[in-house]
Amino acid sequence: MEQKTPVTGSLIQMFKAYTPALFRKDFNAGLNVALLAFPQGMAFALIAGVPIQYGIYGTAIAAILGSLFSGGRFISLGPTNATAVMLMGAFISMAATQEQILVMMPVLLLMVGVFLIAAYLIKAANLIQYVSASVVTGYITAAALLIISNQLKNVFGFQFDETATTFFAIVQQTMEDIGKTQWTSLALGLVTALVFFFLRRKLKTWPNVAITLLLMSLLGYVLNYYVDPSLQVATFSSFSAGDWKLTLPSFSFDLIGQLGSIAMALSFLSVLEGISIGKSLAARSGETIDPNQEMLSIGIANIGCALFSGMPASGSLTRSTLNWTSHAATPLSHMVNGVLCLLGALLLGPYIHFIPKPSLAVLVIFLGFSLVHFRRIRVLLNTTRDDRIVFIVTVVAALVLRLDTTIFLGTGLSLILFLRKAAKPKLVEYVIGDQGQLQEIGDDQERAHPQVMIVHVEGNLFFGAAELFRNQMRLICMDPNLTVVILKMRNALHFDATAALALEELIRYMKDHKRHLLISEIRPEVYDIFKASGIMDVVEESNIFMDNRENSMISTAQAAKRAKEIIGDVESKVRIWSS
Question: How far does the chain reach from its first CA to its final CA, in angstroms?
């Protein structure tokens, strides 16, 4: 089992406790991650449709800044499949040229960073727990299909106008242009697939993506310069250290309005992806993470990427897992990864033009297939009806709509279905048994018609449940023999303004029908809401019974005594309801 690192807390504490042994662990982990992160950065840039160096610089800058502001070693920041494909979908739907994209990118990333820092200040990171796995899995599955479909043209060696903005449109356009296939490009793509598949099977612990790209670059060089120069397999444009400079975003109100929803969606997705990964790895290590601190690091990483020609930064599952399995000791392993990627960019940039575009496209397709988790999909489809609906709707929406719209649509639907479920109180009838205990009435038992009824409120009594609660209580009060209702509220949770208004209407309704409502087991926080909302103005103080934490039955016993005084019959039977 991996040992827990004693190095936690602030950077100052970390450096005080830092040792050469910890550095060796961090350097080894950072080197392993860099060998994966460098080619992945190129792949994500290809997905997003931006120059290849944006993915590499984004990987380096996000990792370096993330290590400075992160509270732990578990989340490796940089471009990811999910954020890259959202960027691709947004730019395609906007019909933006590459020049326009490079103008919009810094503004977009700066907005993402500002959103995340603002969310950090109000400690909003824990809100992601309300996003169901159905939404995330549905989005990632659709993103994988979009990644795969959009890279087929690079494998076949042709390009088409960026008018295809959805999965189905891209597939249709690809099929229409299939006759333009360059067979050299397709052959090189197939060889790449075979080499990568072989390396994954035989050399699982090696940096297979980097090795495959190196071998295919050598093969592409031989084909282009020695076998047949007329073949001209498509490659990427080189870049040099001199091209890399500080980029100041060029703002305009129109541009901010145009990018607002995309920035919000990227912010949401980055936090959701990063913190979910961090929590999972931390749990496996027997540790914890600070979600708000990690959100701050993601926000600052995005601002850094905005200023230094990067891409949206999020937590990468593959790189984070590799960093953890490589026994990283502290967040400085991420800095090692970032520095090595930056050195790689500066040293290897002039030679990027040797990498064949079909080969990188094939590796991107493999990354896309790796995102489809069939076991998780099977669980979501077979567990509950709501999970199935949310997953299917999210997938279909992501295939026909913009991805930034889809993630909000899926989350909204998930919350609606949850609220519908949480807002359905169920009433169960009880009576007092021979020994004074509560017992549920069976189907074959006779139902009495008591003058006093006790309604036990169990669960959520918030705005979503208020209307159903009011209607059910009115049905109960229609019993012609009923005179008094005792409302037990000790276990009524999330009592809010809407529920207070519903309760006030119920009290007035009962008064109009010559009935009495007594409220027992009221907790202090609920009593404060009663006073603030004006309920105390419509209910008599003698009909209110505060909760006794030591013995909850005292409050209800006092209410029952008051009920008998009202009806003038101390021998009356009592019916107990639970909702």
Answer: 47
Rg (CA), the chain: 31
For residue 6, what pLDDT is reported?
A: 41
Q: Within this chain, do residues 442 and 506 fall inside the same structural domain, yes or no?
A: yes
Supply the pLDDT for residue 2: 42
Enter the DSSP assignment of 526. Answer: H
Q: What is the 3-state secondary structure (H, E, C) of 199-230?
A: HHHHCCCCCHHHHHHHHHHHHHHHHHHHHCCC
Tell me which DSSP letter residue 235 carries.
Answer: B
Q: Identify the bridge partners of residue 574 per DSSP, sorted by sequence position.
A: 452
Residue among 404, 415, 420 at smallest CA distance from 460: 420
Amino acid at 463: F
Q: Are residues 473 and 358 part of one domain? A: no
Task: Identify whether residues 453 and 406 lie together within a single domain.
Answer: no
The predicted model scores a pTM of 0.73
Any idea what the CATH number is for the domain that residue 484 is in? 3.30.750.24
Domain endpoint, select from 395, 417, 439: 417
Same domain, 412 and 466: no
> Helix, strand, coil % (nearest 5) of the chain?
65, 10, 25
Residue with tokens 């360059």: 182
Give me the count of residues in the chain. 579
Residues in the chain, pLDDT under 50: 1-9, 432, 435-438, 447-449, 578-579
Contact between 283 and 297 (Cβ < 8 Å): no
Same domain, 99 and 198: yes
Residue 359 is assigned to a structural domain of this protein: yes
352 neighbors 236 (Cβ within 8 angstroms): yes
What are the residues whose beta carbons fall under 8 Å from the beta carbon of 293, sequence distance 6 or more? 69, 70, 71, 120
Cβ-based neighbours of 129, under 8 Å, separated by 6 or more: none
Number of structural domains, the chain?
2
Residues 313 and 306: their CA atoms lie apart, in Å, by 10
403 and 446 belong to one structural domain: no
Query: 243-272: string of b/e by CB count within 10 Å (b at 16+)?
Result: ebeebebeeeeebeebbeebbbbbbbbbbb
pLDDT at 436: 46
Chain centroid to CA 41: how far?
22
* pLDDT per position as a tens digit, 3-59: 444 444 455 566 677 788 888 999 999 999 998 899 999 989 988 889 999 999 999
Residues 151, 298 share a domain: yes
Single out the residue of 444, 497, 507, 442 nearest to residue 470, CA to CA: 507
Counting Cβ atoms within 10 Å, is residue 15 exposed (0-12), middle (13-18) or buried (19+)? exposed
Residue 354 is assigned to a structural domain of this protein: yes
Residue 493 backbone dihedrals phi, psi, to 5 degrees: -100, 150
Q: Which two tokens stand for residue 125?
A: 């990171």
pLDDT digits (tens, 9 = 90+) for 522-561: 888 888 888 888 888 888 888 888 888 777 677 877 887 8
DSSP state of 349: G
Task: Say whether both 366 and 500 belong to one domain.
Answer: no
Containing domain of residue 96, as a range? Answer: 19-155+173-236+251-417
Q: What is the pLDDT of residue 3?
A: 42
Q: H or E stretch including 103?
A: helix 98-121
